[in-house]
Amino acid sequence: MAVVFKKTSMLTDVPLHYCPGCTHGIIHRLVAESIEELGAADKAIGVAPVGCAVFAYNYFNCDMQEAAHGRAPAVATGIKRVNRDCVVFTYQGDGDLASIGTAEIVHAAARGENITVIFVNNGIYGMTGGQMAPTTLPGQVTTTSPYGRDTSHCGYPIGISELLSTLKAPSFIERVSVHDVKNVVNAKRAIKEAFRRQIDGKGFSLVEVLSTCPTNWGMNPLDALKWLEANMIPYYPLGNYKDRDKEAASK
Amino acid sequence: MAKKLYKGNEAVAEAAIQAGCRYFFGYPITPQNEIPEYMARRMPKVGGTFLQAESEVAAINMVYGAGGSGARVMTSSSSPGVSLKQEGISYIAGAEVPCVIVNMVRGGPGLGSIQPAQSDYFQATKGGGHGDYHLVVYAPGGIQEAVDLTMKAFDTADLYRMPVMILGDGMIGQMMEPAEIPEDYQPIVTDKSWATTGGGRRVINSLYIQPDELERVNLRLQKKYALIKEKETMYDEYLTEDAELIFAAYGTTARICQSAINMLRADGVKAGLIRPITLWPFPDAPFAAAAARDGVKKFLTVEMSCGQMIEDVKLSVGGRKEVAFYGRTGGMIPMPRDVYHYALSVMR
């Protein structure tokens, strides 16, 4: 019988600990499939963050290091400088990357560090129980913004793709979503392209993936997907923010 | 190989390279800037990598990644910068990643001063970051010893899979002395099959979410620390055999005490020195042995701090003899004559 689909060998058989309806599982699969399809399975090294994806080292079927909160791009820098032929990636959430780890991500990007960053943005701190993130939308209720995020008190969400795209060195920065099948397919394309840039030695690549957190948003999984589409995408427009290959081609 | 005149910071940097260090991640801070500057010039010439990190926090995490990939790797800083590194050092200790960290200590707390001090003793020896861990801490008393201990530090780090610290001070970093840096050094070779080099399923990690598992990890680390205490403790003694007054001092201060001891001896005061070379593990045996000798009247701890190592000296002496203290702090350096006069007042 012909096999039409099988799980990527880049994921282990360890059951994922994520909440029901969380889109981390989809994003894990896209990352794993991309690495496998690019023939990089035997030279992949991943860096897990602190946050919901802290146990990513149990799931990705490759060498892994677990970083302190926000420090994954620095750890990945150390790994990549030693293992120049390996494919090194970080997998980070928005608290990790866009709050405590802003210095590390900005400078890894500014150096054009030849690594791939998967940035999962669900607008909230999931692991710690739903506190306000740097990416929490204005007015959004969280456990530390119980009356809604008040922008006069704690400012506005950070658009990481927009911010990093102002830097010269990054090769590829794109924001995608996984709230429906079409977008999942598109996210896969972007993630694969990001890894391809690294394999081709073109430097820093980042894919920001809009993701849901049904548990801490207080919604069922389907409503969470709808909420993402209706509320997050207008604030965080999807699309490519930086593509040095295209910039070079258009010159 | 002939001796050459080296500045302490540059000697430490070259010694690291001769010990096989090929990765250095650092951030500028006085008084250790000659280390990253030397590495920036030298690393490209030996096929190594020097990278100036965006912060000490990033530098120590780059060290974590490179060390976890099996490389011989080093970072250096001075007191405020080493405070920033403590998070990373705790993770490195927990994940059992070998690396070398140099602290050319300056006055504190806070931004403090840029002059030599020994006020980071607690931070270095008692676990500056969170959790039940130790670093092996070497305290060189001169440039040649800084060279020898830096080279040894890489072996110790590999052998026990742990971070090792060179605790110097602004004086050790800045002064010049003749030293010989061996170019035929053979680093010990250890099994690094645990390192992430691609193609494996290895995990460098300090997270053990099940408390019973974490307890087992901690107990295993404690066994390792006990072995290190047994095998790696280092100290030196100077004229202690007939001494009635035993000085306790390390690094720069130990040399000042030696001068003071010579002055005291010229006056007929029988003084000697026990100089810890490893601050962790602390050499408690020679202090305990001296405390048990009838001829020994008192101990005098001298530090460039308000009194930190004295706690370990007192624990070792175990209340059998009085332990006095003389210190200068804030970047002030005790003069031999000051130490001499204080010692006379103690023995009166």
Query: Looking at this structure, what is the CATH superfamily of chain A?
Result: Thiamin diphosphate (ThDP)-binding fold, Pyr/PP domains
What's the total number of strands of chain B?
A: 15
| Rg of chain A (C-alpha, Å) | 17 Å
Which two chains touch over the largest interface?
A-B, 34 and 38 residues
Please report the total strand number of chain A as a whole number.
Answer: 9
Q: So, CATH architecture of chain A?
A: 3-Layer(aba) Sandwich
Widest sheet of chain B: strand order?
A: 3-2-4-5-7-6-13
Using the alpha-carbon principal axes, give the shape of chain A: globular
Shape summary of chain B: globular
Mean pLDDT across residues of chain B? 97
CA radius of gyration of chain B is: 20 Å
CATH class of the largest domain in chain B: Alpha Beta
CATH superfamily annotation of the largest domain in chain B: Thiamin diphosphate (ThDP)-binding fold, Pyr/PP domains
Residue stretches of chain A low in confidence (pLDDT < 50, at least 5 long) are none
Question: What is the CATH topology descriptor of chain A?
Answer: Rossmann fold
List the secondary-structure elements of chain B in sequence, H or E.
Answer: EHEHEHEHEHEHEHEEHEEHEEHEHEH
**H-E order of chain A:** HEHEHEHHEEEHHEHEHHEH
Provide the CATH top-level class of chain A.
Alpha Beta
Main sheet summary of chain A = 7 strands, mixed
Total discrete domains of chain B: 2
Give an overview of the whole structure.
The complex is a heterodimer of chains A (about 250) and B (about 350). Helices cover about 40% and strands about 15% of the residues of chain A. Chain A has eleven helices and nine strands. Chain A has helices spanning about 25-35, 55-60, 70-80, 95-100, 100-110, 150-155, 160-165, 180-200, 215, 220-235, 245-250, and strands spanning about 45-50, 65, 85-95, 115-120, 125, 130, 170-175, 205-210, 240-245. In chain A, the strands form two sheets. In chain A, strands 2-1-3-4-8-7-9 form a seven-stranded mixed sheet, with helices on both faces. A two-stranded antiparallel ribbon of chain A has the order 5-6. In chain A, helix 1 crosses helix 8 (about 180-200). The longest helix of chain A is centred in the C-terminal third of the chain and has 19 residues, at about 180-200. Chain B has two domains: about 5-230, 3-Layer(aba) Sandwich (Rossmann fold); about 235-345, Rossmann fold. Chain B has helices at about 10-20, 35-40, 55-70, 80-95, 120-125, 145-160, 170-175, 210-230, 250-265, 285-290, 310-315, 335-345, and strands spanning about 5, 25, 50, 75, 100-105, 135-140, 165-170, 175-180, 205, 235-240, 245-250, 270-275, 280, 300-305, 320-325. In chain B, helix 3 (about 55-70) packs parallel to helix 4, helix 9 (about 250-265) packs across helix 12 and helix 10 packs across helix 11. Chain B is about 40% helix and about 20% strand. The chains are: A alpha/beta (about 250), B alpha/beta (about 350). The interface of A and B includes residues 12, 45, 64, 68 and 76 of A. Strand 2 (about 65) of chain A pairs parallel with strand 9 of chain B, so a sheet runs across the interface.
